[in-house]
Structures are given as C-alpha cells and as structure tokens.
Amino acid sequence: MTPEKIEAVQTTWDQVKPDAEKVAELFYGKLFELDPSLRSLFKGDMKEQGRKLMATLNLAVTSLTRLEEILPAVEELGRRHVQYGVPEESYSTVGEALLWTLQQGLGDGFTDEVKEAWTETYVTLSSAMLNAAHAA
C-alpha cells in the first residue's frame, strides 16, 4: 500500500472510530441483511462481538505501516475462522458490508480514493486470512 492510501485509511478510521458501537451495529446489520445465514455463526453477545470487531479493525488500521508485525495475528484469525465454520465466500460479503458501513459513517468523505484505499486494505488482510485458512 502506498503511504497516501495508508493515510487515507487511518484518517477516515479516526473519523468513524468515536462512534464504534454504532459502526459495529451498522456493520452487522448490513452483513446479516446481505447474508442472513451468517447470523448463526454468532452465538454470543453482539455488543461484545462489535467491540471485538472494532478493536481488531483498530489494530489493523493503526498497524498498516508495519503489516509484517501483525500478519501472524491476521493469519491466526484466518485459521480460527475455519474452526468457527466461516465459509470462504463470506469474506467478500464482509468486505461489502465494511465498505457500506464506512460509506454511511463518512458520507461525502467516502470518496473514490478512500474507497480504493479501504478496498486494498481489506483485500490485503482478508487474503492473508484466507491463505492461512487454506493452509490449516
């Protein structure tokens, strides 16, 4: 990723992060709208799940300049998703829900450049997760 794309992701993340609970609710609402079958993968408290999601996203976004440091954790997350029964095709659905959620939170600030930067970020991280899942 270019420094400009990393900056775009980090700057826009800082804009939506203060509303973390609402962002997580929007994300999961959209995810389950896009694929209702994914709801069955979540057994626990969704507010807690939302906090975990936001913490994971925060770590990923703040670590974009040193991805090599977090890749082992990202890969482990991919292996755990296999154990949770997460279908491979859901990764694209999650990406769609994430981009939609960011668009809702950023409004006009969700420019084509921002969308491209977030898409590259998601593809980079989800590819690492999927590669680890395949190897598991």
Summarize the structure.
By secondary structure, the protein is mainly alpha-helical. 77% of the residues lie in helices and 0% in strands.
Could you say what the CATH topology is called?
Answer: Globin-like
First and last CA, distance:
27 Å
Query: What is the molecular shape?
Result: globular
Largest sheet: none
Radius of gyration: 14 Å
List unreliable stretches of 5+ residues: none
Broad structural category: mainly alpha
Can you count the beta strands?
0
What order do the helices and strands follow? HHHHHH
Overall mean pLDDT score?
94
CATH architecture: Orthogonal Bundle
Question: Can you count the helices?
Answer: 6
The overall number of domains is 1
The name of the CATH superfamily reads Globins
Helix fraction, binned, reads over 70%
- Proportion of residues in extended strands: under 5%
CATH class: Mainly Alpha
Secondary-structure blueprint:
Layout: H1 3-16, H2 20-34, H3 46-62, H4 67-84, H5 90-106, H6 112-135
Structure description:
With 136 residues, the protein is an all-alpha fold. It has one domain (3-135): Globins (Globin-like). Helices cover 77% and strands 0% of the residues. The protein has 6 helices and no strands. It has helices at 3-16, 20-34, 46-62, 67-84, 90-106, 112-135. α2 (20-34) packs across α5 and α4 crosses α6.
